[in-house]
Design brief:
This protein is of the alpha+beta class. The protein has 2 domains: 46 residues; 105 residues, K homology (KH) domain (GMP Synthetase, Chain A, domain 3, 2-Layer Sandwich). It has 3 helices and 5 strands, in the order E-E-E-H-E-E-H-H. The longest helix is centred in the middle third of the chain and has 23 residues.
C-alpha cells in the first residue's frame, strides 16, 4: 500500500515573515511571523509554536466531534483552549515543554445516554487525532538545507 502524502510550500515574504501554501489549490495561504521579541519579528501573524498548538487543538476537536457524531450524539458546539508552556532544554534552546488542552462539548440537554456515550468518546478520541498522537509518539523528521545562487 502506498502511504498518503501531502505537501506545504514555505516562502519568505519579510524579514521573519513567511507564507505557507498548501497542495490543495482552493485553500488560502497561511502566514507566519515571529514575536517582536525576536530580531526581525513583527508579531503580525502567529508563530510556528502557536500554529502547532492550534493544529493540535483543531485535531483533538475534530476527533472528539467525529466520535460524538459516530456515537449518534453530535454536540451542539465544541469549543476548546490549549495552553503551551515553553522551557529551555539542556543546550539553552527554547522548546515547547508541554501542551494542555481542554475541550468542552456543549449540549442544550444532557441525558444518561449522552453522558454514557460521551464518557466512551472521552476515553478513545485522543488516539484518533493524527497530530497529537504523532507528536506524542515522536515524528521522524528529516531535514536538508541547500545553498542556491543566482536568479
Amino acid at each position: 500500500m502506498v502511504e498518503p502524502t501531502f505537501e506545504v510550500k514555505m516562502t519568505q515574504i519579510g524579514e521573519m515573515q513567511f507564507k505557507a501554501e498548501f497542495d490543495v489549490g482552493k485553500w488560502e495561504p497561511v502566514f507566519f511571523d515571529e514575536p517582536e521579541t525576536v530580531p526581525g519579528g513583527k508579531g503580525e501573524y502567529p508563530n510556528a509554536s502557536r500554529m502547532l498548538a492550534a493544529s493540535v487543538l483543531n485535531c483533538l476537536s475534530a476527533s472528539l466531534n467525529f466520535c460524538l457524531m459516530k456515537s449518534r450524539i453530535p454536540a451542539d458546539k465544541i469549543r476548546g483552549v490549549i495552553k503551551g508552556t515553553l522551557a529551555r532544554n539542556e543546550n539553552g534552546r527554547w522548546r515547547i515543554k508541554s501542551l494542555e488542552a481542554k475541550l468542552i462539548a456543549h449540549y442544550d440537554n444532557v441525558d444518561e445516554t449522552i453522558k454514557h456515550k460521551f464518557e466512551r468518546c472521552k476515553n478513545i478520541f485522543f488516539d484518533f487525532c493524527i497530530v497529537s498522537a504523532s507528536i506524542k509518539e515522536g515524528i521522524d523528521i528529516k531535514v536538508e538545507a541547500e545553498l542556491e545562487e543566482g536568479i
